[in-house]
């Protein structure tokens, strides 16, 4: 059973990101403020839901949240500031869109770069503990999946409609055969060390 809030007396926003371990595509993040009495049997950590359930849960969150927002950081920015900082920046961009402004942030994971002067709590596996973080995980994941499906149309070799940019065998084989695209994160190890040199040959 997921918890509805950390502190009932504060306006809390749950935050989570998606796509941190991918070779291609942006990192997405979402921030969600739910009513303190929100409950729905479907809402859970997005990794525990089927794809169909995630999209159903997204509709529920968007309809019933007090506020929600999704943001992204592009591959070029990821290469410039590294993926950890890019994950924080994506969350900051999502939080900045919220109205009302939250009084406290619940962050999935064990690290965060403070946003303005808002207090925050880092919660390991928070998407399996708090409803607002679970809601954010659903939004971040589904919006990122939608984006990867769109860019798959332009670059069908890489199977992004299936792997969503994660480092599968087929994805790496396509990078070896066709090279990297502007959507690939050049600062990531796109191929195993022995093969990496062939990328730029």
Mind explaining what this structure looks like?
The protein is an alpha/beta fold. The chain folds into two domains: 12-153, Nucleotidyltransferase, domain 5 (2-Layer Sandwich); 156-200, no CATH class. It has seven helices and five strands. The protein has a five-stranded mixed sheet with strand order 3-2-1-4-5, with helices on both faces. A hairpin with an 8-residue loop joins strand 1 (12-18) and strand 2. Helix 1 (51-64) crosses helix 4 and helix 2 crosses helix 3. The radius of gyration is 17 Å and the shape is globular. The chain starts with 11 loop residues before the first strand and ends in a 5-residue tail after the last helix. Residues 194-201 have low confidence and may be disordered. Residues 10-200 form the RNase H type-2 domain. It is found in: Cytoplasm. Its cofactor is Mg(2+); Mn(2+). This is Ribonuclease HII. Its EC number is 3.1.26.4.
Q: Topology, pairings included?
A:
Elements: E1 12-18, E2 27-33, H1 51-64, E3 67-73, H2 75-81, H3 83-96, E4 104-108, E5 120-123, H4 131-154, H5 160-163, H6 169-178, H7 193-196
Helix pairs in contact: 1-4, 2-3
